[in-house]
Predict the structure of MerR family transcriptional regulator.
Amino acid sequence: MIRPIDIARKLNISTSALRHYESWGLVPPPERKANGYRIYTETHAAYFECIRAMYPGFGMELIRKIMPLLHENKITEALWLINEAQANVYDEKQRAEQVLKALKTSDSDEFLPKKKQGWFTIGEVAKVVGVPSSTLRHWEKEGMIIPKRDEENGYRKYSRADIRKLLIIRTLRAAVYSLDTVKEMIAEFDNNNIAQAEKIAKDSLLYMDHLITEQLRGMYYLYKLCAKIASDKKAPFLIKKDDKTNSSLYE
């Protein structure tokens, strides 16, 4: 048996945080003593350690999806969710690199659809920037981008410069800058402070480098937790390829 206070001290959190994780269903319900005190085990401690280790790299929203899957021994489903999160970081990294390229040239043809007219529809821009059209409208409402309008039908007409600016906004949001901070940085860009905009994009890339390092640490603790769960249940959780039969076997 492990006392809650000992787990909390080791993880540098409060015992109330442990109770919150328990109430959210992130750890298996502990048994209770006659006086109502919780009886935490080594497995509970492994869950708590994993939650704290995964939080910086993956966030609580994903953790709240993953932990219940582990309770049900649906480990591969949990791993695919993590794989998706890691792929998203890679996509954001590519977009940040795209921003740097866009800032260094006034010609954005490298990543824009080929077309004769010099403007783009909201649907085309949403595809290039990688966000829903509703997000573009929200950014417009916040005053971060003001596209021109077609005089005949009122449709939005985005220029290449607009798209470069939107790519910067997308990169900043991916690097978890607040909306107010993004507005300040975009104001620098509007004032033709390209050097500052380039620094922002590079800082975003550094943030993503830090993020994947945190994800690796979280994965290490997830592996330890899965091994502990498998040991408790005397059940395998790894899949090993059988060289002779070219098939996959649980071991």
Q: What stands out?
A: The chain has two domains: 4-85+214-234, 88-208. The CA atoms of residues 72 and 211 lie 28 Å apart. Residues 194-233 form the longest helix (40 residues). The two ends are 29 Å apart (CA to CA).
